[in-house]
Fold these 4 entries.
Entry 1:
Amino acid sequence: MKANLLHFERRFLEHCTKRQLLEHGDRILVALSGGSDSVALLKLLVAIQPVIKFSLAAAHCNFQLRAKESQTDETFCQTLCKALGVELFCKKFDTKRLAKTRKTSIEETARNLRYAWFETLMQTHGFNKLATAHQKNDNAETILFNLFRGASLLGLAGIPERRENIIRPVLHLEREELQEYLHTTQTPYRTDSSNFSDDYDRNFIRLRVIPTIEERFKHKFLQNLSRLSENALELNAFVESHIKKVMKRKGLSFEACSFEVGALKKLTTFEQKEIFKRALMKWHIEPSAQVLSRLVGLLQTQSGRKIVLNKHMSVIWEKSHLVFVDNSRAKNRSTP
């Protein structure tokens, strides 16, 4: 069976096997946009399916953001999946209206809608893994995007190859490699016209920043950034393991939504920030560098002081503890 695979497909199979991304009996749901990356991922999975023997289906989100183009994308995905013998789930979203109602950006709204629907499909139909088509160029864009937003060192990890039940089997491949594979196999794909506008930050990085860097440092940028991402992921795994042990110490468990000040002061600034980061994420608050610095600075003040995190929550130094409280309770406290 392996002998019938193209060289590129054999490489893909070997990578998935080595990284244990796919296993016999898996039920895989593929996020299919119709673009080159997701079409290549789906075709690669279909090619190696007889070898690993997993079941496969695809899901397409129609966000109705590009009028006829959006509907044409959906129709294309239906035609492609029928030709490949893959079951396809489609859903339309009134993205603009929902973004306005939720007061979130179009990009954030679309992402939330996408993953919420994928999760529903997985629970309803028994899929155990979601495969997305993020590739090496996407990872580079994400790292630079995080860097420009002021991410920490661990924020430079980029996109993980695996996170819980989400796998990214083509993360090690470049966009050009995937497009060459589609050209070789004479497989059509759709091109999103919005990808050519640099109005969005990510598109600006893709269209303007990365090409400029690659022109200067040919064949080095993506590889070196990928290596940086791997190193940051390894560091992240170490830090995660270490902080889990630290938070088992007395006064640092956060079970009562508070930390003991004395226990926090025994830690390094890095450890303090990592613990605060996990507390903030529990309350769905962005752990920005500015917020983390303010929390660390609170430890240098005195009991009775507080900082306001957002309109809903504050952190107060109450006696011997830093307590995360609802602002309705914190409103009578003094601020630093």
Entry 2:
Amino acid sequence: MAVPGDLAGGADAATIVDGAAAALGGLDILVNNAGIGEGEPAATSGVDGYARVLDVNLVAPYACATAARPHMRDGGYGKIVNVASVYAFTASPFRQASAYSASKAGLLGLTRDLAAWWGGEGIRVNAVAPGYFVSEMTAELLARADVAGAIAVRTALGRPGTLEEIARAVAFLCLPASDYVTGATLAVDGGWLAR
């Protein structure tokens, strides 16, 4: 089921979340997965480009979480998973991504804060920090032989991740197996941050 809307700046967050909750008969899981990267380096994209990345990557997850909170609070249980990035911890070696890195680092701060304040309502808030996965956002970059080789060398497991591998990590944070986990960030990076 799809509920259409624009998440930039959180504009349609409440409509989307409330629509999903109504269609599903409640809401106890939210995965904030929408995200964009810069089209150009910060020095050339200016403040507008920087603000757009933050609107989608940081403001929208906050808006979706606050829209989901009443549904989860009413049920006494909820799981929010924010999809961050290894670039919340380190700079990209391939291209300047100041807005992307800042938005994902901010998302980790948001994760910790919401976990601390909403835990008493039965709401757990965690994050995953993916390394390189084959996706729409990385397809062009991973198609370059020099980048693919550098990722293989830098990643302890020697390859990018599969979509199933990130999906399983997110699923863990949504399942009862993680009920005593909140405010945590799970690096799903094949060992990128270990090197």
Entry 3:
Amino acid sequence: MKYDFDEIIPRRDSHSCKWDSADDSDVLPMWVADMDFRTAQPVIDALEKRAQHGIFGYAKVPDACFEAVAGWFARRHHFRIQQEWILFTTGVVPALSAVIRALTEPGDKVIVQSPVYNCFFSSIRNNGCETVSNNLIYRKGTYAVDFADLESKASDPQASLLLLCNPHNPAGRVWTKEELSRIGDICLRNGVTVVSDEIHCDLVYPGHTHIPFASVSEDFLYGSVTCTAPGKTFNLAGIQVAHIIAADEAILNRIDRALNIHEVCEINVFAVEALMAAYNGGEAWLEALKRSLYDNYTCFRDYFAKYLPHCSVLPLEATYLVWVDCSSLGLSSARIAETLLEKGKLWVNAGTMYGAAGEGFVRFNIACPRKLLIEGLERFRRVFGK
């Protein structure tokens, strides 16, 4: 079946956060992480069928929903999950907040690896904990973990959690088994629980393999919590569904209680149908999507190399979020983003959203039809091409 990822689908006036947040309708949004593509047809069909029923009461999550999650991770990631390890909630950010609440005390330290997903910082702060950054090492156009610094930060008796972004947003890295093993060994040795955000796990490109942190060893399985969702994979963020995976029964029970305290322990009728349809019938669409996304990345990278060589596009191993080193412009990340919005009507994310280690960078969302991608590139060039 042919999938058309070049069709431009108008999203303005659809109550879209991405498209309707700018006052100026000429602004091209390449910021928040949702895609400008329709989801897989089996998902649309399932939602249409459910809508036709016409009654939308409280949802009961059926066994088939748990089976869909377990089947997907077994097939796609060789990670075998038992049904009793799974909790459902409304999103990965609520999941992370509930996990932090469940597994920390106010004043505890939570380690992150900056530059990293900005909601990590707010989830930590909102639960009364302190963020400690094990900054990634930026060298030769890519990122690596600073293991010596991680050992130092993890050895602090107040450090209780590490929030791992796997694959990494915004750096685009897919952590290898060796890297995950070293991270896990350090955390286990120091009594630090790893909370692995794996929402981008399905958007990994050829030459790289996503390895769920919990799948590396039995010790890692019982010493970690995994938070993931079909939202990024199938463009379902607005459906609001995610799953938390924890094999340790005591940890799972504490998280379950935190979900109930936060009152994010129930998913809606459309979330149930969308998740099952995506995981049971969306694989062919996903493979076509990944080819289209990587073609977009190649176009993006080549355009910068030809017209904007003073800025460096980092390799993209996963996600559809491209991290660009613009430090040669001599401006702060915030000023670069402001100038692009003011002069180019192009909305991107400033690197410092992801921590101080993101200074000098900007993040682009390239999950859009090629025509819009090229328009965004040309707007950037008109502003900073000299």
Entry 4:
Amino acid sequence: MDKPKVVLGVSGGIAAYKACELLRRLTESGHDVRVVPTESALHFVGAATWSALSGHPVSTEVWNDVHEVPHVRIGQHADLVVVAPATADMLARAAHGLADDLLTNTLLTARCPVVFAPAMHTEMWEHPATQENVATLRRRGAVVIEPAVGRLTGVDTGKGRLPDPGEIFEVCRRVLARGAAAPDLVGRHVVISAGGTREPLDPVRYLGNRSSGKQGYALARTAVARGARVTLVEANTGLPDPSGADVVHTGTAVQLREAVLKAAADADVVVMAAAVADFRPAQYVTGKIKKKDGQEPAPVALVRNPDILAEVSAERATPAQIVVGFAAETDDVLANGREKLRRKGCDLLVVNEVGERKTFGSEENEAVVLAADGTETPVPYGPKEALADTVWDLVSARLG
């Protein structure tokens, strides 16, 4: 079989050196990659490096090998175009349809999915001109990944850092897997909770659960690849932030509730994939509880935590907002799931069986998605991203 053809566009930012790692991941995973840098990108990484790593000649001009019409053919034959880093200048040129070098010509001739991974200073990213250019590209169907927050050039820190190359690769892999399917979540804001809350008993102990957060992260990465603006509210996962998502870190159920309600205020979809503790200790002990010889420990009194899923379902930001819940059950899985769907008032409920060596911490999942209209969609055992895609398929259909 022919290898998937990927065009890696590289524009002139200091983060251009990180694109070498993205190129390595793409080539080693079986993709045929053609690197198309801008002239300014070659000030950071030379043409010889790109040619050696990709196995293809590198040019910035439309005038080289004119008989092969490269300014048309490269884009026509591509299965994916990814621009990393995409500077503010490149986003502006792409949004306005300029074609003054080989990369911008390629973007105009490509009829395949296009992914932009921006990298620039915070002020440039937040400028209204850049935000309008990003909105234009997204409206046309391009996937523009939200930049990461972290150290920038010099001593500056903020939003604008190129996402981790491994995370960009995951977005590219998911976009390629969808083929010619349009990014159906473009223009949508989705909020996803992930992980498991921990309710402190004293400075060293807590009441928690086994949730790893991997399913919530799969939902976030898949939503990014389908064009959504993603807010991920995580609790105690320890996982690297998924590329393109705005991540809010929380610990307890109360903290997670506050973050979810804030983010949900302008969200089209809220997916509560986090395992929120139903109870928390009634009293927090400020000093470590000591074990005393010959004495049994005092009982731990518990109080109920807020029911975030029911609250979000009952107090939706708009009537059209879609709410998705998760139900982890150990017995009478479907019966308990149907009752929970009715009680919580959400649109969709993903029901799965959990326990020792089941679901928690695994890379795979098996579930049934129950809908408020009575339909049921079974998802066979497989990668968690497959379940994520099924959830987004059902959500997308309901978004119209």
